[in-house]
Structure prediction request, 165 residues.
Amino acid sequence: PLVARALPLAALGVLLGAATHLGWDAFTHRWGAGVRLVPALAEPVFSVGSYTVWGYRLAQHASTVAGLALIGWMLARWARRTPPRLPASRTVSARVWAAMAAATLVGGVTAVAVEWSPGSGLFLDDLRTFAWPAVTGSVTGLAVAVAVFVTSWHLRGDAATHAET
Prediction:
């Protein structure tokens, strides 16, 4: 069926995604070979208070914003062009929204807990140190919850569609 045919393409997509991610990391992290190849990336670009934005960090943030904008545009385009396949009566329950919120919260709290050590005092003293893990952990938790929901939605939706015909 369709799943069996799509599996090799999905595997190829994962491998290509991992390879390009690692390649881009070489230019967007202080330790990367790309930063050594392009010395301007190792230079400070500007500062905000005591926080210095280096070239590699600016490239990282700019590519994140550009990538999110591209994904948003592609999703909006897909949503406009794709007719709905499922009955309009299939709505998202409050339990699903609660589960997504819980996964987001658990992801953020877990990431902060991993960063915090009991001997370090109040971790809120350096908010920036914990804001990043809190945000990335929350986004990761939400992404996992959405992936599980979408997968189950499609599996249940496809089963319901086939049962009706």
About this structure: DSSP finds five helices and two strands in the chain.
